[in-house]
Design a protein that fits this description.
Length: about 350
């Protein structure tokens, strides 16, 4: 397979997505949409929300502390542990689904269970690499933001004092640094998933070998890989707008018939006594359930098309640079058999 540029990989990725998702099967779209949705969640850490109550005034600290009993503390600890375990389980599932989705798109298979078992041996290497990378990025980001944040907090006016002259400038610096860190984290996520994960998955490489191979590719064609990241950002924005538009259209299509049925039930049953009111409200609940299920199905189908295309786009960009991926996307043609000896005419 010849190497493709970031723009040239778009067309074959679209055709690959069409071939994988045709003929249309709602079961297939929902299944792959769920896999892709969970895999996309693996690009970030799923951490249970943690928070603390902040009293409105210092005079209420003692009352708030007195209202907290040992039972409440134990309940909060138990809920925190349960939330942490659920978050870690979801993070494991999402990380493993990233392997499954990439394998499914590359091999054009539609069966999840065989791929799940085939890619299982790479899971912990991938998770360990993600955790180490994110910890390093967050430590560096924290070190960069620490100084301007401390200065900003110290520059905050106290009481009726006037703001410090550099308060606005420090706020602008923090905002710019936070935006730059966001872009760095985004590029890091894409680079890990798009450039390192293929070596872990398809070549069963160690983390060190996968990083070296990925860095060798990027170092050999820095302009091509930077243009790929730029194109992926543009495609993400365009696909996001298109997906929002499709969701709004589907929402209107769902609301019109269901809303009409609900309105008809209201006019027929809202004055039909207790029995009619009960039937009406039960019908409203059923219509709401139908709407929710249909709407979730629409979202899964849209995510299926978008995220499968994203994965195919990455694979076609890498296919001409990583032979094992190129052979999966475009299997080499078998060589013709060597010609046999020439036939000699038989004289009668």
């Amino acid at each position: 397979m010849i190497p493709l540029s970031a723009s040239e990989a778009i067309s074959p990725a679209i055709e690959h997505t069409k071939a994988l998702l045709r003929p249309f099967s709602l079961k297939l779209w929902l299944k792959l949409g769920l896999v892709a949705c969970i895999a996309e969640a693996g690009a970030q850490f799923i951490v249970p929300p943690m928070g603390r109550h902040t009293p409105s005034s210092t005079s209420g600290i003692g009352a708030a502390a007195g209202a907290i009993t040992s039972t409440m503390v134990a309940a909060f600890v138990v809920l925190g542990v349960i939330g942490l375990l659920v978050g870690l389980a979801l993070f494991y599932l999402a990380s493993r689904m990233q392997l499954v989705l990439m394998d499914i798109v590359a091999t054009r298979t539609t069966f999840v269970a065989p791929v799940w078992h085939r890619t299982g041996s790479r899971t912990w290497r991938w998770i360990g690499f993600k955790v180490a990378t994110f910890l390093a990025v967050f430590l560096v980001a924290g070190a960069i933001l620490a100084v301007p944040l401390i200065y900003f907090v110290r520059s905050m006016p106290r009481g009726n004092a006037q703001p410090a002259p550099g308060l606005l400038g420090s706020f602008a610096l923090i905002f710019l640094l936070a935006f730059a860190i966001f872009l760095i984290v985004l590029v890091t996520i894409w680079s890990m998933r798009d450039f390192v994960l293929p070596f872990l998955l398809f070549e069963d490489a160690t983390v060190g070998d996968a990083i070296r191979d990925a860095w060798s590719l990027v170092r050999g064609e820095p302009g091509s890989f930077l243009f790929y990241l730029f194109m992926k950002l543009i495609l993400t924005l365009a696909a996001g707008i298109a997906a929002e538009f499709c969701i709004v259209i589907c929402l209107l299509i769902l609301c019109l018939p269901l809303g009409g049925v609900a309105a008809a039930l209201w006019f027929l049953l809202h004055q039909a006594g207790p029995f009619g009111s009960a039937v009406m409200y039960i019908s409203f609940a059923l219509l709401g359930l139908v709407f929710l299920v249909a709407f979730l199905g629409v979202i899964l189908c849209i995510l299926c098309a978008v995220l499968v295309f994203y994965q195919a786009y990455t694979l076609y960009f890498l296919g001409g640079r990583i032979p094992v991926i190129g052979n999966l996307l475009q299997p080499p043609r078998p060589e013709p058999p060597p010609p046999g000896p020439p036939l000699t005419p038989v004289l009668s």
